[in-house]
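Archive transcription. Copying these from loose printouts into the bound notebook so they stop getting lost. Printout 1 of 2:
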Amino acid sequence: MEKIKIITIFGTRPEAVKMAPLIKELEKHEEIESKVCVTAQHREMLDQVLELFEIKTDYDLNIMQTKQTLTSITTKVLENLEEIFEQENPDMILVHGDTTTTFASALAAFYKQIKVGHVEAGLRTFDKYFPFPEEMNRKLTCAVADLNFSPTEVAKNNLLREGVKEEDIFVTGNTVIDAMAHTVEDNYEFKTEQLNYINYKKRKVIMVTAHRRENWGDGIENICKALKTIVRENKDVELVYLVHLNPVVKDVVYKHLDGEERIHLLYPLDTKETHNLMNNAYMIMTDSGGLQEEAPHLGKPVLVLRDVTERPEAVKAGTVKLVGTDTEYIVNEANKLIRDPKAYELMSKAANPYGDGKASKRIAEDILYYFGKRDVPAMDLKSSK
């Protein structure tokens, strides 16, 4: 039997987390020859995920360098993948989301007339500079993709409006929900000792991440002022801020919050630690995209420290709320969730719009259908419950 050769390509930790369960699913199918290529656009954090999910790579481009630019990432990926594609001649590559690795890999495959499958396709803010460069990375990837695996109907409709054929779009759910079945544990003991000393039952623990480029400067300043106020005004609150290592962020955070009572400043955690901290937290405050999908799966309300989001279905479902970076507004919205049990319950019990943990199975079946190995595609998310 002639197998379908697929190379899954990714370069950052978020991509790795979301592609890991799909890689594991592809390995189960005898009709598929699955290979893995990492660009290592990020290095250390990527390696943590590979180890956690026991992913073995066939190719490691190891492109990360100090002060790398979008141009350097793009050109290195293009040049390295050209040689790999000539050697392997895959039937399809799979890429995820909106990183520079994603766009450059899709472009490299297009140059070789290799099919492209785009996982988490169709997210849009409709502002090409927000988030930057992610919004254009995903749009440009969409332009060359042959198969689009959309997490929700909203994402599918975005693609339809852009002229993508309906038969090339499959609604699957988000693979990050699949991944969390592997990472979240009851009675988890943290490797980060400081987290084991927090009383998660008696304290309302708020987990915070905020580092996006568009929030640099006044945005991070305002967020930090809000966090300090929230903790000082609520004696039952304890806050854990996972501080990005970039000095543009780190220096501001430490200036405002270092030494504050009941505020813990930690460096970014590995994926398993992060997911289990989220599971133990009372609520999440973040400017991250991925956490808007992960936290609702655990029943945790999310206040999004951004003015717009490419995940509007979560806002509509009521699992997340946009609060921007205005200090007073952030404080007011956080206090509602801390002090009003009804407001908290409405968000914590809202239905998660990102799926049921079977996205990877659907994607694998849809790929097999595309290549004629199945008579019918996997059922759309809406009709598979």
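Printout 2 of 2:
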Amino acid sequence: MHLVLISGLSGSGKSIALNVLEDSGYYCVDNLPSLLLQQLVGQLELQGYDKCAVAIDIRGGESIAMLPQQLDALRANELDLQFLFLDAKNETLLKRYSETRRRHPLALGDRTLSEAIAEERQRLEALIELGHHIDTSDVKPNTLREWVRHFVATDPGQGLTLLFESFGFKHGIPLDADLVFDVRCLPNPHYDAVLRPMSGRDLPVVEFLEAQPEVLRMRDDIARFVSDWLPAYIRDSRNYLTVAIGCTGGQHRSVYLAEWFGRAFLGRARVLVRHRQILPPNSGAL
């Protein structure tokens, strides 16, 4: 059985992720108490299910503290398991709750929403490093759906996945980044009126950047650093390594570099490329 476990902070997009998996043919269970996980998996295997997705979060109570041990037990039984942790910045969560007017599961009594979010983050801190960490703060729903599809398409049994992620510093540094490179010092296509509406995936922007010697030097320096240290991260038994490349707006320089690195590192690891500030190709509006 292929089991996808989803956890994370309330308001971070877990329902979106679960809906994507349900649409992809997974048997989905939301708000399962952690104590019942192994029982559920055993029952579904007996019934012949081959794909299952389960959301386990703070709504299930104190038993979520047992989740790390349960994941170890499931992996020891050679279950095909992927763990996805969704996160978002506090200000983003506050805004989302304000817009939806829903109650946070820990906002009980006279506890404020900010206090509830802080407590939840503290109680879930031990889960962040258990699997793949996605910061959904500046991510549109269609983009998150695409990222979840890419996540489940990777084979968790084949070692480290190397993820190159572009972002804009004016939107903040992604919470899920392991390595962060600042490329704001490079020539900016934004100041060319013709290139401004394009992205780093468009050929005119690529040609502009590759004509700049400092862009090539920065590109090669980052590639050399990641290449030199990649074996150490693999020896550390990591499942994912997220390399974030940031420019000012996350549209031109960082996008170009993330795309280039994605191609350059094919064959060294399983590679994914993400862009936080631009939509995936062929991604329509909601």
